[in-house]
Design brief:
The protein is of the alpha/beta class. Helix content is 44%, strand content 20%. The chain folds into 2 domains: 128 residues, Winged helix-like DNA-binding domain superfamily/Winged helix DNA-binding domain (Arc Repressor Mutant, subunit A, Orthogonal Bundle); 172 residues, Rossmann fold, CATH 3.40.50.150. It has 13 helices and 10 strands. The protein has a 7-stranded mixed sheet with strand order 6-5-4-7-8-10-9, with helices on both faces. Strands 1-3-2 form a 3-stranded antiparallel sheet. α10 links the parallel β5 and β6.
């Protein structure tokens, strides 16, 4: 007798009713052994034994999830195995055993949801503190640069020590970081030494060392109040942006803390909405939005705003 063909080996794995019922469950859901035991009403030893057969045959895969493992149908079944499973599944799907398994599965999934709901019901008042303790107070912002296009070149204008540049660099093609302070650039160079897609450039915001239309997007974060001529800096940012490129400005709202001029060298004591709107529109931006930001309970400084705007897209001409 010749060797058993792969398709017959596959068929042998599916010939057992329990393994077929397991696959029917794992075809659409990722489940732990305990959950499978509850659905099939079988002991763990039996379920684990059949999962091993299915795993050895390439039907299921598992991943670690803490101390347990979760199983699902292998996503890369070859076409012959996929067709074979479709035939078997069609025979099983309308059976009484599959219907009962489906009902118990819904209960298992509902229990999953109820455990989460019970936690949040009991912890809603403390959830912000719990999440902050686990992941940090601003963890929700760490992944937001992932919304940027990975092919973009982004300008960090007034980069300081490179904190924002370091947050942007993993998500975009290139970051051009500009600052006029040699000390700040030295600190940024040390921080950014592992990012090979960052270019540090020395220069003023009123005369950026950036080519026309070099940037897809740019940020001016807590730097405009140091600039002698903010209107000029905004016009320079527009020049450096491609048509359709976006600029984000974050800075202080108007305040009366005149001591900042002496202690930190501030030139401007914050910016009002009409001031920012007038400057940005004179610079040639459109779709200008100014939003006050929620205060941080730990912060001791003035309130902040975020202003977003866009360089108009290139005018299309008819052919």
């Amino acid at each position: 007798m010749g060797p058993v063909t792969p398709v017959l080996e596959r068929l042998g794995a599916l010939a057992d009713e329990i393994r077929s019922r397991l696959l029917l469950l794992l075809d659409r859901h990722e489940l732990a052994v305990g959950e499978l035991c509850a659905v099939l009403q079988l002991p763990q030893s039996t379920v684990s034994r059949h999962l091993k057969v299915l795993g050895d045959g390439g039907w299921v895969v598992a991943r670690a999830d803490g101390p347990s493992r979760r199983y699902t149908m292998a996503p890369d079944l070859e076409p012959e195995a996929r067709r074979l499973w479709q035939v078997v599944r069609a025979q099983l799907a309308d059976g009484a055993a599959a219907a009962q398994d489906g009902e118990r599965l819904r209960s298992v999934l509902a229990e999953r949801r109820s455990r989460s709901q019970e936690f949040f019901t009991a912890s809603a008042a403390q959830w912000d503190a719990v999440r902050g303790e686990l992941f940090g107070q601003r963890a929700d912002l760490l992944a937001l640069p992932g919304l940027l296009d990975e092919e973009w070149t982004v300008g960090d204008l007034g980069c300081g020590t490179g904190q924002v540049t370091a947050a942007l660099a993993p998500f975009v093609r290139r970051v051009v970081a500009v600052d006029q302070s040699r000390a700040m650039l030295a600190a940024a160079r040390s921080r950014l030494r592992d990012h090979d897609n960052v270019e540090l450039r020395s220069g003023d915001l009123e005369q950026l060392p950036i080519e026309d239309r070099e940037l897809d997007a740019a940020v001016l974060l807590l730097v405009l109040h140091y600039v002698v001529d903010p209107a000029r800096a905004l016009a320079e940012a527009r020049r450096a942006l491609k048509p359709g490129g976006r600029l984000l400005v974050m800075d202080m709202t108007p305040h009366a803390r005149d001591e900042y001029r002496q202690t930190m060298g501030h030139v401007w004591q914050g910016f009002a909405p009409d001031q920012i709107t007038a400057w940005t529109r004179d610079a040639g931006f459109e779709r200008v939005r100014y939003r006050s930001l929620p205060p941080d309970a730990q912060a001791k400084g003035p309130g902040l705003f975020a202003a977003t705007m866009r360089r108009p897209p290139a005018t299309r001409t008819r052919g």
